[in-house]
What does this fold into?
Amino acid sequence: MSHSKTEIQQIILAGAERLLARADNSRSLGIEPIARRVQSTVEKHVLKNEPEPDSSVLHSFIDSLRADDLCLVLACEEGDQSAWNDLLEGYRATVRSASRTASSNDETAEDLAQSIWAELHGLKSREDGRPAGKLSYYSGAGSLGGWLRAVTGQLAIDRHRREARLIHTEEDGDFDRLARDVDNGPHVSSVLHTAASPEETLANNLASAAVTKALAQALTDLDDEDRLLMKLYYFDGLRLREAGAVLGVHEATASRRLARIHGEVRKRVEMLLVKEHGWTSDEATRSLSQVAENLQIEVQPLLAQKDSPETSQAGSETLAV
It folds into this structure.
């Protein structure tokens, strides 16, 4: 069923009111700035591809927007210094980690990170005196952390391709699509689907690099016996009964131990993504499985016992985390 422009605006306003109500910290914002941003986001991500969407598509999309992230960004745009402090405190590690991944050395990474904050705040001002930085392009259609990593990746590309940008991200919303797709997974409506751009591919590679590093660390941190069980089962082709016999335990015990190891590795990877790579806990939980689906890593050497000559007999296999 199609809707008139007035009906669509009413749906958007009602959705904006719901968004403001479900924010844990609304930053004392009124409905007007929320409604404006929701309006532009709906136009960019929904109406551009489907001018007459079903009301359920509109409601579902608006309710998928990140309420607290969006309120934080809008408060920063309104000149709320406490919001800026929260943004810096909450995402400094995220930007620093993404900058290190995209840079060849620490000096370049630090310069890139500083440039990101300048881009976000904006060197220009709008007519009302508020900053006019890249934060004005954040729509809430995906996590703020994921969007910031994509912004960092884009700026790194721009620095290496000074002649011209590959894509006008402000118009096409690639940052938003990247963050949304990583967070929400395959259930997103086909109305919102867009083919991956080079920028999205880069940002996905940055995320995969972080997962790869964290997984490598988690595997090398395993006890020797746990690492040996993983190697026997995944790379030497032994059944659990046979692997258990090597370790001197019953098949059922080996099975329980393997399940425990899987859980510990996943928790360790999530912890490392948060602590060392600047991901939020929510991002790590939501994104880890999806990133791991396309992750290729030489894990056999990591599973061999430390200092074992078997390390050199490596095969390769993808380990789902």
Remarks:
- The radius of gyration is 23 Å.
- The chain is about 65% helix and 0% strand.
- The CA atoms of residues 1 and 233 lie 55 Å apart.
